[in-house]
Here is the input.
Amino acid sequence: MSHATKPILEVDQVKKYFPIKSSFLKRTVSNVQAVENVSVDVMEGETLGVVGESGCGKSTFGRTILGLESLTDGSIKFRGEEIGGLSERQLKKYKKEMQMIFQDPYASLNPRQRIGDALEEAFIIHTNIGKKERRQRVRDLLVEVGLNEEHADRYPHEFSGGQRQRIGIARAVSLNPSLIVCDEAVSALDVSVQAQIIQLLKKLQQSHQLTYLFISHDLGVVKHISDRVLVMYLGATMELAPSDQLFANPLHPYTKALLSAIPRPVVGGKKERIRLKGELPNAANYPSGCPFHTRCPLATEQCRQVRPEWREVEEGHFVACHEV
Amino acid sequence: MESLLNVQNLVTSFRTADGKLPAVRGVSFSVQEGETLCIVGESGCGKSITTLSVMGLLPDNGEISEGSITFQGEELTHKKEEEMRKHRGNDISMIFQEPMTALNPVFTVGYQMMEPLHLHTKLNKKEKKSRAVELLTQVGLSDAEKVLKKYPHELSGGMRQRVMIAIALACNPSLLIADEPTTALDVTIQAQILDLIDDLKRDLGMGVVMVTHDMGVVAEVADRVMVMYAGHVVETGTVEEIFENPKHPYTKGLLASVPNVDDEEHSLEAIPGSLPNLNEKISGCRFHPRCPFATEKCKEEDPPRFQISNQHQSKCWLHEEATTNESRHEAYS
Here is the structure.
């Protein structure tokens, strides 16, 4: 994985709010602040891991980047061109470049459509190649993701979970994209199969020069696959650092608590956990100041009132906390 | 010492369109008081069916076809439904993976908390309520009085799981069966729940059977571990033996496929292939098609359990040679 210095995606102060409307006049009474001021550059060829608990806005962030959710505020640039707020038609040429792998590929496959036909669709929409060549491409794809050519004639229900995820991956790489958003792509799989899929993703990254935005709640998996890791909490970014650095030297109290909570597959290696009180606050009722202050063991009066700045404390290591 | 729970040679099968298929194929284990036994394996390996067999909660098309389950010296397999009902929620309790589907959405938490007390104790209404408040406080819910009046949908995932645990503990069970109790929860909440179960086990001296697929969880809570594959127990041992000296190739594969956040050098290794279906006929050892060490013998004969140490057993032909030739065995590990 090469660390090219050129960013493929520049995300600047992106916000995504879902309005809550009143029942009768449909006035917007308040907002669910799903993504709150996220700024991050994704470098060409890297894997950027995005971690956080459920409800922290990591999936919405991924969907907003791909234009699957409209942008409330901020700017998203793909290879220097603004793509935030483009219409569906204007986005079409970028969709070839940006793809997504979902958690449950079964839900995104039509149960009555053969796998071969499902994979062929992308070529029909986005390319002008003839039928015979399309079929050949589909067969090559299946082999590339570790399935057989004959699988093209089968239906989704005939596959196991791991195989379906391979189909989801085949679909995502079919048009040779440069960026793939993997939203909990391996979370539903058993560990032995999960390891197979991670290896496949790594192999494809090399052969297709892919950039991954790898969204997951599983920190072990994220550490394994990512070059850099972004920690999100309640829609806001808490910490961003190169993977090794983040796991070896976490600075933000939330990252520390999150890392100490992972059950380690080592006996006797039980570390003293930082116990977090309570649970994630409701994003419809956004806390003032630092969003983490309600659960933070270090919270001060300043944290309750002033939103901490997103600043670079070491080279490439960003953190949003008053106490660091 | 007599075991709290003793399962001998359990075979559980299902009637299907393809005939009668065994999901659990001769499983034996025991649980002592104050001990946590973890059952690990991938989905479909029969770990949940094993626990449902103990609870007598098998689906309609499932039945225990062989073996015995004794709880505190009593045989459970021949008990009638009414007799089993006297045990469930009383001295044997179960926590399920998805608390939202296990709680009834149209009744308040308080009603559901008092149900086991109503069935198994003679407490009056006031005593029941104070017991419910006490339980909710014990599982770490503040403002228990208020929680009693709420409906399940008003609670978060972690709170629901705490309520489930409180209901399970209502009658001071001697055996708690937890089927993936933290799989649906976030890591910070998972840590809270695991600590809670561990504390309660110590305070109440319960035996705990925990089903999980997360090796990290196993390392944290287990005293003993039982690894299952395709309906068989492939390895059992103390938690130290399983993690520091795994013997069965499947256990080794399972451990190698878990990403480790502390170990820089750790390389992820996948087990090739996937778990066989119930109706797949596999001769010999059921793991041999995925096993890197499979020999001709593995394809033909089902291996017996080889004793590695006092509590450590592994169901693999490799140990037959290993017991006679220690140095040869080193080459495999």
Q: What stands out?
A: The first strand of chain A starts at residue 7 and ends at 21. The radius of gyration of chain A is 21 Å. The CA atoms of residues 7 and 243 of chain A lie 18 Å apart. Chain A has two domains: 7-97+177-319, 105-176.
